[in-house]
User: Fold these one by one.
Assistant:
Number 1:
Amino acid sequence: MQTLSDNTYTGVGVSPGRIIGSVRQMPRAVSEPPAGERLTHESPEAATDALRAAAKSVQAVLNDRAAGAAGAGRQVLEATALMAADPMLIKAAVKLITAGSSAERAIWDAAASVAEMLHNLGGYMAERVTDVFDVRSRIVAELRGVPAPGIPLSDVPFVLVAEDLAPADTATLDPAVVIALITSSGGPQSHTAIIARALGLPAVVAALGVTELAHDALVYVDGAAGTVTLNPGADEHAAAAAWATTAASLAEFDGNGRTRDGHLVPLLSNVGGADDAVKAAAAGAQGVGLLRTEFCFLDRDTEPSVDEQVAAYRGVFDAFPGKKVVLRTLDAGADKPLPFLTDASEPNPALGVRGYRTDLTSPGVLQRQLSAVALAAEDSAADVWVMAPMISTAEEAGDFAALCTAAGLTTPGVMVEVPSAALTTEAILRHVEFVSLGTNDLTQYAMAADRQLGPLAALNTPWQPAVLQLVRLTVAGAVAEGENKPVGVCGEAAADPALAVVLVGLGVSTLSMTARALSAVAAVLASVTLAEAQSLAALALAASSATEARAAVRAHLPILHDLGL
Ligand code: PEP
Ligand code: MG
């Protein structure tokens, strides 16, 4: 996928925007010190002093960062800072040093014992395991004199370059400091891409070679074209300045998604919790098309209690009184493991016990989640719908609907993200009230291409005519079922303004996306009639490749160029 021509790296553009900034490389993960490593300092006392100094300095850095952060990011940092000075942790490490271990190995092993103990205590204590491991890596990095793991600290804005980013890396990502994301790996459906769009940051993924870019190198990032240009010239500076104006003019969405001739297409938002929901409501979202409930509990080792779940869901419902909120039950597995539901040793997690399938291996969790949803919905003003991820058969849809009915939830639906579900939508809709196309996974499974792998990014795009055919068949299944049940899209495809037009032309009824994309999608949708959208859909379906489909459709949407999208 990647080529380096002159001074330009080419990858895949996953979040529009044109920006110039200097590079900071994401530090590499800290490697484990060799097992049994013996003292490397001249004495146990010297090693102990070095360890204490390293822990102190890690704590000071984290406290500094916490002071400058807000909300959830601040809490994460404060909790980690506390752990860095935890007397139990340091005492356990000093004991190992006294017994002859190196300082690095001692903190490594001490942290493992503390983590195990916390894990066994369960509840809130078990939640701290992540902090222990984070602190351990930071202390080892400090002892080695290498950069600390995680997003680099900086007083000036920078372009973050990484191999890939995990959801946890981005907890403290401040879009005022990180102004663009570039990764050498990852595809258009990867979490880096999803996060970049959510934060409104220009982003290019699968740009091989960018991890070699020097610290402070000046680059121009074009998140629509998918290019990164080293040492930008006058043209790039002009394009970046023009984008700054465009971004300001794209800020508004009037809360009424429609085509030019008035065909209504509610534009909903994808959210991961109450904070997102409040922002989405402020951005004009007409409801929530996907509440990724696993995002509320990504840092958890243990199943959240019903009360905790009620509080988390209620926060989202309260942001949308009188509006539809589609809650998705836990989609644990593959790139979103939850230790209390998934087995980290599965050989092929994307095809494993994931999403709805975890009900097979952890019975009870889903029922408890549905009870929590019902309780949260009880005296909420939101119109609560609930759907299951990773449904493969009509039988599974029927079983899920029965669980919803038992919990007192009246609007069950399922995601269509496995090709078998797209091919059997008519049968599925005999059991449930709606379907929602998860084009991220639908693409990965239709193309047999892991959504996280950079080298497969060209396969892994929802512009693939085969994926568009599956969308068409899903809509056809809903029409054949005869009760006019809604077919939404909540995958990243809905956030691509040109593709959103194609999806509407294919007959989908709602589009759900990151709040940041609402205004651009609304503007482009409002530039076409429904008939025009339908002919653009036909054009895309008839194309012989994803590249051709995208180019053909974009050529008919001049507004994209005007808006710099
Ligand atoms: C999808 O697969 O398109 C989807 C919306 O779910 P997720 O990205 O959370 O897997
Ligand atoms: Mg999915």
Note: The pocket of phosphoenolpyruvate (ligand 1) is lined by residues 290, 292, 331, 417, 438-441, 490-491 (CB under 6 Å).
Number 2:
Amino acid sequence: MRLNAHLANLPGNYLFAEIARRVKEYEAAAPRRLIHLGIGDVTQPLAPAIVQALVECAREMGTADGFRGYPPDQGHPFLRQAIIDADYAPLGVALDADEVFVSDGAKTDTSALPELLAADARVAITDPVYPAYIDANAMAGRLGRHANGAWTKLVTLPCSPDNGFAPEPPSTPVDLLYLCYPNNPTGTVLTRERLARFVDHARQTGTLILFDAAYKAYVTDPSIPRSIYQIEGAENIAIECCSFSKSAGFTGMRCAYTVIPRALQAELEGRRVSLNALWKRRIASRQNGVSYPVQRAAAAALSPVGQAQVAEQIRVYMDNARRIVTALEGAGLQVHGGINAPYVWLRAPHGRDSWQFFDLLLHQAQVVGTPGSGFGPSGEGYFRLTAFNTPDNTQEALERMLAVL
Ligand code: MLT
């Protein structure tokens, strides 16, 4: 057999697997329990409306009339319509149920969607970035070789305080540009004007934008776009991925969705091809979708009662974020994000590098965070904290951190 060298030669471990490995190694000898502000995993229990839907659905599946087998490839129509009614209609974005694809996660979709493009498509990302985008394209052989900490064929758009974490569009031609806003890992957002600049650039250059909106539920400023389709013309060049993981506590339940407008088309061998039709073709061959009870639960999260309940959970996480920002700024640290996103991005104090700061917090404060360098070269010297733990744990983590800074 001949192995996939692109997969076999990936550098190191996946970021969160590497953190889990280091934490496990340390945990047995730790002098007190660890507090996790590392991976963005939610902690609040499922909202009552979601639990009720799951219970009712379990009963329904146990009856001859209510039993369901394979779900429709693209997702149940009731969920696709609920997504349009709850997430897009209020923004003034008109979509058809045919343009929504239900899946088990935004990570799954953002990793798989490049299959729509040529095998040697050129890819651009912001830096720092959610590492799954890079790994998926590296495994497919699109990024060339990894040398001196960089991929030879990957175009990177560095983000830092100098450009307000809002880079210019790529200056070299690319086929695919990943954007994630509210941003993971920096917790920053793009204004409507900055996002429009990317959309205009993509329309002029024929670039596909893959817009990861997994954290849109955390946007508190009404002037900040929650969907790329709020920008005129985006339906011609953008795919949007969204998730119930962080908006309704579904990291364990698994449900997400991707929007591919029918207007999104490209030339292939002299004819216009719809990316929506291509994706439909691809998922029919590759997957059997999300279980009926989970899709019912996701629809319950979008019902008026469900929305009010999950909004309260988001409020709790955003209070945590505010508390982290206030405490660390009060300690004199340079802090970004945490206002329209559940992530806080901070400069490691005293010139430490990201992993040195990780080790300091782990060994002296028993607090787990995420080293910024794990998200790319521009993350070196930075550190990410999540707001997804409980208020009590967040408070205790801050007290422990302030004692060792
Ligand atoms: C993160 O911590 O960056 C996210 O939780 C990872 C994910 O959503 O897969």
Note: The radius of gyration is 21 Å.
